[in-house]
Write a structure and sequence with these properties.
homodimer; 349 residues; alpha+beta; 60s Ribosomal Protein L30, Chain: A; 2 domains; eight-stranded mixed beta sheet; 14 strands; transferase (chains A, B); thiamine-phosphate kinase activity (chains A, B); magnesium (chains A, B)
C-alpha cells in the first residue's frame, strides 16, 4: 500500500457516528435561554415565547457548490447564511439551527472540522445556537441540510403576501455581485485546468467573489427597520434573483409592480465585471440570484424614514394586480417581468 | 431518439422547482392550530404554547435505503416515522414536519408523487402538518431530509439522562424484526438477480418485512403512558439496537444496567427467521436496529401499572454506574454490553 503522506488526515471510520458528532459540536456554546437542550438527546428542546419560524435548505455538491473553488469553511458559513436569510425575511430573529451532513469517505475528519469552523463562525457572529443534526455517509459527494428556527412577535411577522398598491418597493444592499463572483470563479477554474501555474490577480474581484463565497444574511436590516420604526408590509429574501422575488410578492399580495431600472443598486465592481464579461448588468441583478438581500414593501408614509439610508434603495412601487409587473427601463420602455428576468430574454433576443 | 413508451413519466424539468413544490404539497391539509403558516413563504410560522422539541434525520439512497426493494411510498412513510420516533422519545407529541428531497433526473414526477403519498399517509395517521421543505436536483440518487417539530409540557419532557439506580427498564413492542426483514429482502434481491422469474412465497416473512419497510413510530406508547399515569424517568427510541440505546441511558444518566436475555421480547417470526438464517436472536435484538420501539425507565413504584401490559416488556433494571451494564444470559452468565451487542461479538467468537 502507498503510505498516506498527509499526516493530517484522520479517517471518519475511526471516530464512528457518535464520536464524530461529539467531536464536531464540542466548541458550540449555547447563547439563548430559549435553548433548553441542544445536541445530545433524541431531539433538541426549545422554549419560545413568541411565534416560531422554521425554514430549511439543502446544499448539494455539484449542484449548489463546487469544492474546487469553495473553501469548506466558507461553505459551512454560507449554508447557515442561506437559512438565516429566510428567517430574517419573516422579520424574525434566528435563534437556533440544526445541521445535517452527508459525506463520502474521501473527506477526512480535518475537512469536516473546517466545515464546522465556518458553521461555528456563522453561529457566533449571528448569535445562533447549534442544537442538533445528523451525520452520515454518502455514496458520492457532500451535502448539507440546515434547518433554522427563529422567533418573532406575532404582530411583527412579515409574510410575502402583505404588499398593497402604492407601497414602495425597497431592497437592501446591492445586487448581482454573487452571480458575477461565480462567473469569475468559473473562469479561473477553467484557466487553472489549462495552466495550473497561473497566478491570476483576483484582487479587483474580491468584493464579488466574497458575495458568492461568503454571503451575509441581513440581520442588520431587520434591526435597522425596527430602529427606524418601519414595519414592512411584505418581505422576501433574494435567493433566486430580483425578478423572481418581485413576482412572488405580486402573486402572493395580488398586486402589480413597476420596477425602475435606474434605481437598481449595483456595486461598481459588478458593473465593471459585467462589462468585462459582456453581460447586461440589469439582467444580472434581475436573474443572478444568491445575493441574500432583503426585498420588502413599505407604505408611502414611510418614505421619509427610508430615503437616503445608505443600506436601502427604493427601486419601485406596487400597483393594482391588473396593471401587471413591469421593468421601466432607462429608456422609459415598459417590459413585463418574468421569473427569468424579462420577456425578451425568453424569446432569445 | 428512442421514444419513451411509459406515458406516465413526466420529467421534473417541465414543472420547475416552484411548480414541483406546489404540486407535491397541494394535498396536505393543516390540522393543528399551532400551524399559523405552512408551505409557501420564506419560512413556516408556528405558535407553540409549551416547549418545542425539534429533531432531524437524513435518509440517503444506497446508505439507508435500497430502491430495488423499497417502494417509494413506503420510503416516504418511513422517512417521517424515523423522525416522529425521536419526538415521541422525548415524551412529546409531533405536530409539524419539513421534508427536503434531492433527486436526480432519472426520477419522473410520478415517482415523487408516490413518495409524497407515503409522506401524506404518515402525516394523516399521526396528525402531523407538512409545513415546509426544499426540493432540488442531485447528481446521483435520492436523499430525504426530514425535520420534525413536537410539543410537550415542560414537566413531561423526558431526556435520556433521568434514569436512577433500581428503576425498571422497559421496552415497547418487540425487537429484531426490522433487521431480520432486511435479511430476507437482501436475500430475495440476490435470488432475483440470478432468476428474475422466481416467485418466492414471502407470506411467512410479512411481519418482519413490514417492520423494515413500514415501521410505525410509537405515538400510542406516549399516550398509553399518560393514560397509565406513568412518567418515565428517561427515554430513547431504538434506532441503532437495544444494546447501544441502553448504553446511552447508562452514560447519560450515570447509571449501570442489568438486562435479562430471557425478558427481551421477540416475535415468533423473528425467532424462526433467525433459525433459518442461523443468527442468534438475542444478538439481533441487541444490535439489529431500526425497530423504532421506545426504551424507557420507570421507578419501581410503577411496576404494578406496567406489569402484564401486552405493549410493554420489563427487560431489566438500572444499577449503580460502578456496577456497569450487563446482559444476564439465559444460562445466568453476566456479559458486558457493548454498542455492538456484547463483548464476545467483538472478540470474534
Amino acid at each position: 500500500m502507498i503510505e498516506d503522506k498527509d499526516t493530517q488526515r484522520t479517517s471518519l471510520e475511526k471516530l464512528g457516528e457518535f464520536g464524530l458528532i461529539d467531536h464536531l459540536t464540542q466548541n458550540f456554546p449555547i447563547s439563548h435561554t430559549s435553548t433548553i437542550k441542544g445536541v445530545g438527546d433524541d431531539a433538541a428542546v426549545l422554549s419560545i415565547d413568541n411565534s416560531t419560524v422554521i425554514t430549511t435548505d439543502l446544499l448539494i455538491e455539484g449542484v449548489h457548490f463546487d469544492l474546487s473553488y469553495m473553501p469548506l469553511k466558507h461553505l459551512g458559513y454560507k449554508a447557515v447564511m442561506v437559512n438565516l436569510s429566510d428567517v430574517y425575511a419573516m422579520n424574525a430573529i434566528a435563534k437556533q439551527i440544526t445541521v445535517s451532513i452527508a459525506v463520502s469517505n474521501r473527506f477526512p475528519l480535518e475537512a469536516l472540522e473546517e466545515l464546522y469552523e465556518g458553521i461555528a463562525m456563522a453561529c457566533k457572529l449571528y448569535t445562533v445556537d447549534l442544537v442538533g443534526g445528523d451525520t452520515t455517509s454518502s455514496k458520492t459527494g457532500m451535502l448539507i441540510s440546515v434547518t433554522a428556527i427563529g422567533e418573532v412577535k406575532d404582530k411583527e411577522i412579515t409574510y410575502r403576501s402583505g404588499a398593497k398598491p402604492n407601497d414602495l418597493l425597497v431592497v437592501s444592499g446591492d445586487l448581482g455581485g454573487a452571480y458575477m463572483g461565480l462567473q469569475v470563479l468559473e473562469r479561473e477554474k477553467e484557466v487553472f485546468k489549462v495552466n495550473p501555474e497561473s497566478q491570476p490577480d483576483l484582487e479587483p474581484y474580491s468584493y464579488i467573489m466574497e458575495r458568492q463565497l461568503k454571503p451575509e444574511a441581513r440581520k442588520d436590516i431587520v434591526e435597522l427597520l425596527k430602529n427606524l420604526n418601519v414595519s414592512p408590509t411584505a418581505m422576501i429574501d433574494i435567493s433566486d434573483g430580483l425578478s423572481s422575488e418581485i413576482l412572488h410578492l405580486c402573486k402572493n399580495g395580488n398586486v402589480g409592480c413597476n420596477l425602475y431600472e435606474d434605481k437598481i443598486p449595483l456595486d461598481p465592481t459588478v458593473i465593471s465585471a459585467c462589462e468585462e464579461f459582456n453581460i447586461d448588468s440589469t439582467m444580472v441583478a434581475l436573474s443572478g440570484g444568491e445575493d441574500y438581500e432583503l426585498l420588502f414593501t413599505v407604505p408611502q408614509t414611510d418614505f421619509k424614514k427610508i430615503r437616503g439610508n445608505p443600506n436601502l434603495s427604493i427601486i419601485g412601487h406596487m400597483t393594482d394586480a391588473a396593471e401587471g409587473a413591469y421593468l421601466i427601463t432607462r429608456g422609459n420602455t415598459k417590459i413585463p417581468l418574468t421569473a427569468q428576468g424579462w420577456n425578451s430574454f425568453e424569446t432569445g433576443s
